[in-house]
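Lecture 7 notes: from sequence to structure.

We start with a single chain of 225 residues. Read the sequence below before looking at the structure.
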Amino acid sequence: LEFMVDQIAEVLRSHPDYGKRKLNVVDIGGGKGLLSNLLAETFGDDVVVQVIEISRAATVNGMMRAKRRGLENIRFDAMDATKVDVQSNKDVVVALHACGALSDVALGHAVSQGAGFVICPCCFRSNPHLRVSIPKGTEGNPEVALVTAEEFLDVDPDQYTSLKQLAELQGDIKLASKAMHTINALRASAVGRLWQSKKGSQERISTSVKTFPIGFSTRNFCLVG
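Now the structure, written as tokens:
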């Protein structure tokens, strides 16, 4: 959590409106709010945090935790992450342990919103049924298209299936790590391509693939943009 908060702090403070208004942060698949409650507490009046989680039980748990901590700048919504309102002016999209295609869903929302992001992927073969929202046109056009993760990444489905299997290898950490890095590099590339298409040549996004110590998790990659 400390690593995530540090990365999110960097993205928040790079926003031109930081300190001028409350920035809108959305946590995709945020569960019971372990990360989001900490964000709401850490950044206080500088942010409003929304947790999107499909499990109603988890959102109730999270709301109770937030209430006990006296947090008023956070809300929990039990809903499908693919149906987040992409016209609702999000400034930063975050996701911790975003399983499989949920990472792509979070990145799609970031691109559609023109938002910064900090995404920590997990379980690369999970949620293959999820669809990713991507912008249909240029800046000012709110329309989005729903596509598969393979379409979002612009990769061959069969090759991507093989790559995800390698990323989940248990007996060869080095090979699995290379596969995970490749998948996240494809994600970073997709964000850059779609951002350029939406924003035009006058604006680019800086995206990096970072890691945290493997002792915390073997899925130790983080996409920051």
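The CA atoms of residues 37 and 65 lie 8 Å apart. Keep this in mind for problem set 3.
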